[in-house]
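Suppose a classmate hands you a notebook page containing two proteins, each written out with its sequence and a corresponding row of structure tokens. How would you begin to make sense of it? This section walks through that situation. The first entry is reproduced here exactly as it would appear on such a page.
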Amino acid sequence: MIASLQRNNMALAPLHSYQGIDADYDQILTRTSSGLALNKPSEATPKFMLSEKLRNSLGGYAQASKNTDTAINYVQSMESGFDQINQELKVLKTVVLHAANDSSLDESSRAIDQEEINRSLAEIDRVVNSLSFAQKTIFKGNDQVFARVNNPQFTVIKIGEKAKESKMGHPIVMEQVPTKASVTTLEELTEQNFGEDPLVLDFFIGTRKETYSFSPKTDPTKVAEELNRFFKVQNLSLDASFNQGKLSIQHKNYGSLPVFQIRANQNDVFSANANEILTSKPGLDIQVEIGGEEILGKGEKIYGRKGGKTDGLEMVWNAEIAKKQAEMEANEDAKESPKPVLLEISNRPFSFHIGKDQGEVAQFFLPPIDTKHLGLNVKNESKLGNLNEISVKTFLHAQDSILLIDQAVNEITQERGKIGVFQKLLLEQNQKDLASKKDNTLSGESAIRDADMAKTVMEMTKKQLQSSTNAEILKNSNGQQKQYLRLFRA
């Protein structure tokens, strides 16, 4: 060993150890003061990132729970409005029954009854137009127009503001199923098509031309697979299929506009003559009847008629879902006929965001419930069109008014039942689910982030002892240099 005065090599090891222990001790002090095992990303990056995501989820669950509470309060306020309307309908029923007792009433009595009826009708409209929650009229819903179809084979993309609201839904009748442009070989493909001069196909789509040459001895049953791989590589909007020995090529898009052309180097493939360009058979556009309106779409897309019931509508038909539904209906021996497909349009969707992520929205739809929209479509001899028109001016009017009031009661009761189910099975259940998710997330975040205080105190004591020991060693490591200095004094 060299007797060096320039470097104290013996002190390097205890110095580095002391510095490391000092850094660990600082980290332990931070854990002790914060109560957290992780205080910055550098301590354990993957765990820290997971912990931050869980913390973000906790905040989302907390706000979603508050949103759900608000939704429940909103629905309960709506229920109080329904109760007021029901009370007024009871009054109406009582007054009309009194007026229907024709033999005991004179004109002045009927006038008094009519006045009380008018007052109750005005009270119903007042409740509908003025009952509010947080300065928002409860029965008005949102200003936006909302549309949906009760069958998943149709997806609504958007709806216009002038679309006509339908209380029962606009029936959708499929009149023409959309198809795709296609061509099919005239004869079955055989090994002769793939001999020494194998089949070559040219495809023309717009201004593009692509050529595919089959190899000699190609298996005819594998032709469609080869072409589909080729279409994918070349990004061509075509599909190939092989059925009963014949090859079919069709466009990927529905409708009369997408077309393509094809040419084969052999006779009797797609056309009688070789090298003759054949244009595909055009597809069909979808055609439906919605609420009695004939609509011819483009491909599988349906566009509402301007100024009609479906003004501004854009909707897409899904062929795969329609096919699955048809198969299910064919396999089931259903005694009941399929449910009618309905387009529901409402300008009063009630929307509540009750989850932590985008799209976790609870909605219900409330039709208009003012007196002009209650008691509609009730056949009566007095030609009363809605609840607002009920009258007791004659015995017949009183009798027919009873029918309209009963219909209005049924309608209000039905809507109350819907929002009751909405509150119980969706909002209140969601509140329970959120509480459970929040507890589980909190437990997971705690297991990652929170410090084990007993272990932390034990480590702190250990580091204190190590620090003291290394400090003493570092102090004694300077003794060798002192011995060298005594040589000069000697």
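The notebook's second entry, a different protein, reads as follows.
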Amino acid sequence: MLKSDAEHSLDKIFTSVRVLIPNALRDLCGESFFLTGFSMIIAGIDEAGYGPLLGPLVVGCAAFELPGHPDQPLPCLWKGLGKMVSRSRCRKGQKLHINDSKAVYAPADGLKELERGVVGAGLTLGRACADLEAFLDLVCPTLSQRCRSYPWYVKHAEEAFPIEQDAISLKILANALGMEMTRVQTRLVKLSAQVLLEREYNRMVEATRNKGAALFSIASIHLDQLVRDHAHEGVVIFCDRQGGREHYGHLLRSLFEDWSFEVTQEKSERSEYRLERNGKIARIIFTEKAEGQCMGTALASMLSKYLREALMRRFNAWWTKQLPGLTATAGYYTDGHRFLTDIAPLRASLNIRDADLVRCR
């Protein structure tokens, strides 16, 4: 049904009240004032493994609850949590390094810095993880079970967790981060991932006939969950550009067809959309270098990279055990083909199909 003029006026008044009351109370009581009814969600979505020939595609998501309103200037989480979080590496090790995974992780340095940020933040959710299987189940509940259908992703006896960090140090750091989050009335409410293993990836790409469409389909699972679960608070979602796409309006209209939909802007560097229904608000922003604009997107980027690297370690451990002397691979195109050539006789003897091991695009 179409809204009457009176209903539209009431919606505008309601939105104005939501914006003005918390701002006025903060002016009166100071920046530390916080009222749960006026909290909002800032979330980010990013991927790792879009380009490789081998290994999983991972799309991560991280969301924080904090004081504010989605139609007001957005607070900076790096600034708000500056006592415990930094965009750059802290030499003394007193802060978590949260940034684009490319800035945090370098293969020559190992997983230590990446793991520190991802697992340290994850521990603030309040669930301890005794091994990697438990962490996989925390962020992607079906993943450890699905891994068992691939021999190269099954947990092996030598696997440690944390992989490179010290568990006690991580718990101490996570406790300090949790206390600082409480002090500034911020909390991590979502740290999750959608992981496509090779067989699943190939089926999705074949179904969509487009690699970019497959990526958006996975990201849309996070978008749908965030909007359904958090739009009543007001949610702003930053997504890294999906496969170079500039226009997302028709895709979002299909995904949220029962919401009022507005295209705020569509430009080469940034596309923004606004959803509203019964006072619920969601802003969805696709932008270049989203990891530098939203700490949630940066953490999602790190989570995606961490999960992919952890699974590639299992992948290489299994194959090198089957073929001693085999050089491990990161799975990217050129070296991936080298790896496939090296294992070709073994793979034939094991009757491993391309569809189970090699990504089709």
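A careful reader of the second entry would note: Residues 311 and 340 are 18 Å apart (CA to CA).
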